[in-house]
Write a structure and sequence with these properties.
The chain has a single domain, classed as Spore Coat Polysaccharide Biosynthesis Protein SpsA, Chain A. It is built from seven helices and eight strands; from the N terminus they run E-H-E-H-E-H-E-H-E-E-E-H-H-E-H. Helix 2 links the parallel strand 2 and strand 3. Helix 3 packs across helix 5. The protein is globular. 43% of the residues are buried.
């Protein structure tokens, strides 16, 4: 990476609270003080001086989002973008927002992170950015224990986390192509593999504590972990 200012981090927070059993997205809930999303944004920004931070939200949440960010004293430089009906569409909207800067070479690396993973460390963001700069793409993975799988497999199977990072120009091109073809990927790496199979995506060691808050018990575990850090 030629400069840390060449990094943009997209933090996704446009989902609903359906699986959590709440009437709002769980990222707007507090986690031992600050909101979940604020912890995610802070960790995403910590390793990159002058890096751009894009927060993708449901437009219905905008008023609450701005109040939550202000209450947590988050930087005013955080850019808010409206998400879409799917994760893929939300990523596409964020990349279109960044398109002028990517085309101008002002952004070289883009990281995409689930806002509901507030325990992803700044060190992990830095490692993913470095891997993306060197190889073209990088994702954090944790190898699954064979006892976690229903069927025996000869190959190594890994659980994929976020942030996922890629060189900005091919990432933008992949999502532009996906829009034309109507392709919807399950995550960022799926879209890159579909349109740039020659691009090498390296695996970076993930972190067992970098779990996604999906259910109420996940929040309880995160609260305990934050309290002992």
């Amino acid at each position: 990476m030629s400069s840390q200012s060449k990094v943009a981090s997209i933090v996704l927070a446009a989902g609903s609270g359906t699986r959590f059993g709440h009437d709002i997205n769980k990222v707007w809930l507090p986690l031992n003080g600050p909101h979940i999303i604020s912890r995610s944004l802070t960790n995403a920004a910590a390793s990159f001086k002058d890096g751009r931070i894009i927060l993708v939200i449901n437009p219905d949440d905008e008023d609450f989002a701005r109040k939550a960010l202000e209450a947590d004293e988050m930087p005013s430089s955080i850019e808010i973008v409206y998400g879409g009906a799917s994760r893929h569409e939300s990523e596409f909207n964020a990349l279109q927002h960044l398109k002028p800067a990517i085309d101008a070479g002002e952004i070289e690396i883009v990281l995409i992170h689930d806002g509901a993973r507030p325990l992803a460390t700044p060190e992990l963001f830095a490692a993913i950015a470095a891997g993306a700069a060197q190889h073209g793409g990088a994702i954090p993975t944790i190898a699954l224990d064979p006892r976690e799988m229903d069927t025996a497999r000869d190959e190594t199977v890994a659980r994929v986390q976020t942030p996922q990072g890629f060189r900005a120009q091919p990432l933008l091109a992949a999502y532009d192509k996906a829009s034309i073809e109507g392709f919807v990927g399950t995550d960022t790496s799926a879209c890159m593999e579909r349109f740039f199979p020659e691009l090498k995506i390296c695996a970076v060691p993930g972190d067992a504590l970098n779990f996604k808050i999906t259910y109420p018990q996940d929040l309880a575990i995160a609260e305990l972990l934050v309290s002992i850090q």
